[in-house]
């Protein structure tokens, strides 16, 4: 069982507070809060790992607009 599933089970079924679940499972309170909020909106899909890759790269150079140096 994943740590996320344990925390969600502890909060929703066992009745632990989010802060108490964070202490018990050695997780940050902010992550537990975010996890519970995601679980309430997405269900079990919230338990899947998420990519940490940025969606955009604001400083990227447009390959079409950049000059070709030979």
TrEMBL record:
Domain of life: Bacteria
Organism listed in the record: Microcella alkaliphila
InterPro entries in the record: Fimbrial_Adhesin_Reg, Homeodomain-like_sf, InsJ-like_HTH
Keyword Transcription assigned: yes
Keyword terms of this UniProt record: Transcription, Transcription regulation
Protein name, as recorded: Transposase
Bilayer-spanning residue ranges: none
Residue ranges annotated for the Insertion element IS150 protein InsJ-like helix-turn-helix domain, each copy included: 9-55
Region entry Disordered, spans: 43-70
UniProt xrefs under Pfam families: HTH_28 (PF13518)
SUPFAM superfamilies: Homeodomain-like (SSF46689)
């Amino acid at each position: 069982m994943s740590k996320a599933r344990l925390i969600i089970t502890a909060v929703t079924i066992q009745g632990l507070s989010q802060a108490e679940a964070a202490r018990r499972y050695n997780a940050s309170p902010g992550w537990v809060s975010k996890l519970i909020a995601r679980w309430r909106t997405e269900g079990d899909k919230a338990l899947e790992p998420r990519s940490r890759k940025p969606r955009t790269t604001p400083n990227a150079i447009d390959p079409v607009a950049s000059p070709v140096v030979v």
